[in-house]
Amino acid sequence: MFKWFVLLCVLALASAELQRIKIHRSEHKRDRRHVKQEVRSLRHKYQQLIQDYVIYDNGQPDYYSDYTEFTTEELGNSMNMYYYGQISIGTPPQYFNVVFDTGSANLWIPSAQCLSTDVACQQHNQYNSGASSTYVANNQNFSIQYGTGSVTGYLATDTVTINGLAIANQTFGEAVSQPGNSFTGVAFDGILGMGYLTIADDAVVPPFYNLYEQGLIDAPTFGFYLARNGTSEEGGQLVLGGVDVSLMSADLTYVPVSQEGYWQFSVDNISWNGYLLCEGCQAIADTGTSLIACPSVVYPQINQLIGAVLTDGSYYIPCDTLNSLPVLSFIIGGTTFELPASVYIQVFQEEGNTSCMSTFTDIGTEFWILGDVFLGQYYTQFDFGENRVGFAPLSN
């Protein structure tokens, strides 16, 4: 699908014209309910890779078996969980905020034909195919599973524009029904998946594939800067078609993708205060979640190490120990990347009380899922051309 080629060097990419996309950040406050909802959604995103598993809610089992020329777009962050930016669909353009999600590969947005009882749809921008002169009917249904049900609708084909780059004949999902309250009250309308075609539902070619194949960017690579402490307008950047060296304080450390589908790679080892948690383990870089999912065997170990106690299905530490906790160290491609406790512990202020929750979770995988808790500390490059992922410390 891609016109694959070997990229000559990082300097060649860096010298190309980049497309920079602003990422926005919602200032909604996140609470423990959001974390539990995200755990469910995360499990359903990776349901094909995990065995039957039980998620506990308030101590009760909750079963779920069913989320070269380069351009930059600024991103936004909803509840420190989702980073999103603006795209348009159709002629004339209809505008939507979408999560740029490396843990999935489909684009979907709400449809103007959604149910009047669909609260999430009614809260968001809706695509009206009848108002677009470039719309092409597809006549095929689609369904994507999430934590509380499935997004359902039908496929459509139209012009999708990202930062002025118009992708012709892009197929995407028009959602006529969204599950439960998974997408109510959030700052984005839909999701734009940036994973490999092999994980795309209905084998729909992802937008980034067509972005490169139609010659709109010079190289099949993109990078993320996710601002963890940004404002609603300055949540970070998505860089399309190359590497933005201005966002990095050192060179990228690249590791090969070990299995094409998700952005999966090998980690040399992960340790905490000298305690080895894994060696030669696998991890996935996922911009569509804020959590760090541990292998099931590691989950109780790491929470025990940080002094966390299980309460109502989540692990909490005494807040007065937060500043004394050591960093969590990841050695990737021979380079050490550290997470301080202020990152892997989430502090909540609720009803006058302060609680400190571990951001580590367990969804029944044998691999690690590194969400924005990790990715927000580093510039991350996703390179389809050479099937690799790169990390570098931020310049600010």
UniProtKB/TrEMBL annotation:
Keywords associated with the record: Aspartyl protease, Disulfide bond, Glycoprotein, Hydrolase, Protease, Signal
The UniProt record lists the keyword Hydrolase: yes
MF annotations from Gene Ontology: aspartic-type endopeptidase activity
Disulfide bonds: 114-121, 278-281
GO BP terms, alphabetized: proteolysis
List of catalytic residues: 101, 286
InterPro entries according to UniProt: Aspartic_peptidase_A1, Aspartic_peptidase_AS, PEPTIDASE_A1, Peptidase_aspartic_dom_sf
Domain Peptidase A1 as annotated: residue spans: 83-392
GO cellular component: lysosome
PROSITE patterns per record: ASP_PROTEASE, PEPTIDASE_A1
Residues annotated as signal peptide: 1-16
UniProt keyword rRNA-binding present: no
Record family assignment: Belongs to the peptidase A1 family.
Descriptive protein name: Blast:Lysosomal aspartic protease
Taxonomic lineage: Eukaryota, Metazoa, Ecdysozoa, Arthropoda, Hexapoda
